[in-house]
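pls design
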């Protein structure tokens, strides 16, 4: 049996519309889009039509993105139908088959939370099929439908089904603690290979000080760093342009101010390490910032996840840290800064401030790359719960990022010196360089 029923296509031209003006068919390019097939490699027309439908709704697609996640979910329904002796088409599905489908998922040892997500995506797909074939009584909320859904008692806009396992409270992903950041940095700073150590510390710094997603950091180009450096040389605040990979329409670039020392380290990584590796691997012709030091390939998101698992294990951090926790920490710290600056005492006051100060709200959204301020509510609660002293000076708050970054660099140098990795002269020179920046 095939392990998966899909492949990820790149640079695919899709039909858009017929242009009367040009008297020709117009196409749109899909940089990435999943292609779904049955176990015998016959294309699944309905599933692929659904993928195109979702693509046109502007879901993220970089290296698959959200679109690939949805593809994986409905591919299980495709497999269920292909394995079932009494189902020839999706339109044959009945309420009894939904019970069988949920049992099919349980036999594959899929967790309850994933089963619920697969069900929701499959139902959306089946609604699409009902519309595609004009199946009036295929799926709905009364006894007259082949597939009978129920309204969610807590939220009427959501639907459920009697076959589903009970829902459990949603797990809140907490920000990485400052203690765990120090543990991870300490382990990485002890890596013997100086080039790898420097690269990995730069990645950790970007995770902590930009709030970018792992894929967004690994999508950074040398050009982005050079542009930030040029901006800095002109006497301006270093601004790093980050491509928002979860957005395909509107402005998909956000500019994040970064500490000058972080920019200096990124420039040093390019000059001292990356350039040499790329010269050794002449076949590599790309501009990605972070690369494999073995062959010059761009680093992949899964590789970073593997690194974080290893670093966590060796730092005695359980469960393992994942990249998104750095993003949660970044956003939480930004809210703490705002709360301190505006002397806010509770969540309600802060929410009102965001609603009434459009400029502030847009700044928060610019920092985070979110499109809806309501998605930031959880961070407001965490920020206020973490603050125990709301009278810190505004000036001190504004300097926190640069000071924290400088401290982390100095700690790394002290650790290297104590472990005889650098000489006393090198230690003093590098300290002088950091302090004078």
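designed seq:
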């Amino acid at each position: 049996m095939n392990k998966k029923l899909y492949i990820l296509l790149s640079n695919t031209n899709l039909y858009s519309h017929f242009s009367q003006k040009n008297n020709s068919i117009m196409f749109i390019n899909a940089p990435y889009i999943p292609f779904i097939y049955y176990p015998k490699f016959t294309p699944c027309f309905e599933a692929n039509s659904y993928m195109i439908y979702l693509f046109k709704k502007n879901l993220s697609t970089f290296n698959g993105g959200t679109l690939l996640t949805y593809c994986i979910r409905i591919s299980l329904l495709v497999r269920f139908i292909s394995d079932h002796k009494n189902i020839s088409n999706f339109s044959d599905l009945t309420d009894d088959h939904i019970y069988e489908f949920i049992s099919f998922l349980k036999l594959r040892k899929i967790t309850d939370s994933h089963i619920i997500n697969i069900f929701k995506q499959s139902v959306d797909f089946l609604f699409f099929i009902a519309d595609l074939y004009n199946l009036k009584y295929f799926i709905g909320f009364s006894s007259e439908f082949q597939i009978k859904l129920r309204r969610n008692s807590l939220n009427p806009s959501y639907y459920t089904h009697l076959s589903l396992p009970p829902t459990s409270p949603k797990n809140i992903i907490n920000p990485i603690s400052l203690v765990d950041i120090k543990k991870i940095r300490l382990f990485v700073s002890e890596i013997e290979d100086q080039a790898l150590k420097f690269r990995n510390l730069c990645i950790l710094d970007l995770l902590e000080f930009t709030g970018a997603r792992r894929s967004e950091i690994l999508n950074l180009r040398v050009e982005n760093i050079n542009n930030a450096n040029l901006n800095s040389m002109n006497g301006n605040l270093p601004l790093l342009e980050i491509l928002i990979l979860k957005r395909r329409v509107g402005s998909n670039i956000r500019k994040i101010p970064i500490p000058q020392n972080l920019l200096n380290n990124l420039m040093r990584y390019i000059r001292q390490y990356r350039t040499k590796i790329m010269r050794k691997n002449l076949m590599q012709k790309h501009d990605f910032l972070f690369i494999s030091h073995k062959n010059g390939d761009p680093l992949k998101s899964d590789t970073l996840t593997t690194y974080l698992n290893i670093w966590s294990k060796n730092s005695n951090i359980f469960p393992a840290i994942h990249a998104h926790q750095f993003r949660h920490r970044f956003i939480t710290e930004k809210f703490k800064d705002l709360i301190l600056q505006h002397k806010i005492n509770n969540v309600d006051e802060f929410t009102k401030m965001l609603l009434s100060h459009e400029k502030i709200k847009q700044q928060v959204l610019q920092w985070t790359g979110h499109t809806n301020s309501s998605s930031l509510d959880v961070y407001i609660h965490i920020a206020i719960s973490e603050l125990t002293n709301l009278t810190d000076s505004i000036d001190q708050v504004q300097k926190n990022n640069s000071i924290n970054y400088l401290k982390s660099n100095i700690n790394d140098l002290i650790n290297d010196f104590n472990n005889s990795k650098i000489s006393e002269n090198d230690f003093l020179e590098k300290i002088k360089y950091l302090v004078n920046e």
